[in-house]
Amino acid sequence: MKLYVWKIAPNPRRVCIYLIEKGIEVPTEEVGVPGKPILDPAFLERAPHRRVPVLELDDGTLISEAMAICRYFETQHPEPPLMGADALEMALVEMWERMSEFEGLLAVAESFRNAKRSFAGRALPGIPGELAQIPELIERGKQRAGVYFDKLEARLGEARHLAGERFTVADITAWCTVDFAKFIEIETVEGRPNLARWRDEVAGRESIRATA
Ligand SMILES: N[C@@H](CCC(=O)N[C@@H](CS)C(=O)NCC(=O)O)C(=O)O
Fold it and tell me: Tell me, what's the pLDDT at 205?
């Protein structure tokens, strides 16, 4: 088994944090090209979805998508539960995790990928060939991310973590989003005291410090 990662990128980081929280050790291979914001062409030839993280099983099966990889491990190592322990918690974890990826992480990525010169012609991950940046999406991504951070602020005023008392994969995706946002010009915790409280608490976790 092997986990393919790109250590500077937020999506592989979601899985790395998850594995540390679970105490599961998996051999990893870095497939980012040093000094360039691209994946190793040899890896891309073997990875049909052209993105990381990818988990390769011993029989050659390739699993893409951070949450699919976490689900694979969660089913075999249910303790401590990071994807919910009963019907309600599972639903709340999935709700907040999906919102965090689709409304948060993708919004920050939209602004980032359309702004950075080093991503010119590569405005979306996973697309073969050229894809032009759209400058209007820099601000639109920030606007979307701001709405998401407000949503986190409201939720974290009523709960310790996103899905309730327990730290879960929803917090992992939200953390990676808040941390990734330092690469775009946007306020995250400023003026959002509940988000600041959560950010400071989560920042102290060993899994977060180990993947910083
Ligand atoms: N929804 C996917 C997102 C994967 C993704 O976008 N990964 C980025 C790194 S954060 C990537 O592989 N980028 C490759 C590239 O930019 O060429 C997941 O959950 O794994």
Answer: 98
Looking at residue 57, what is its pLDDT? 98
Q: Which atom of ligand 1 lies closest to the CA of 13?
A: 10
Interval 74-102: pLDDT, tens: 999 999 999 999 999 999 999 999 999 99
Q: Is residue 62 part of a domain?
A: yes
Instruction: Tell me the one-letter amino acid at 136.
Output: E
Cβ of 188 less than 6 Å from ligand 1: no
**Ranges of residues in the chain whose predicted pLDDT is under 70:** none
Q: Is the CB of 184 under 6 A from ligand 1?
A: no
Same domain, 59 and 96: no
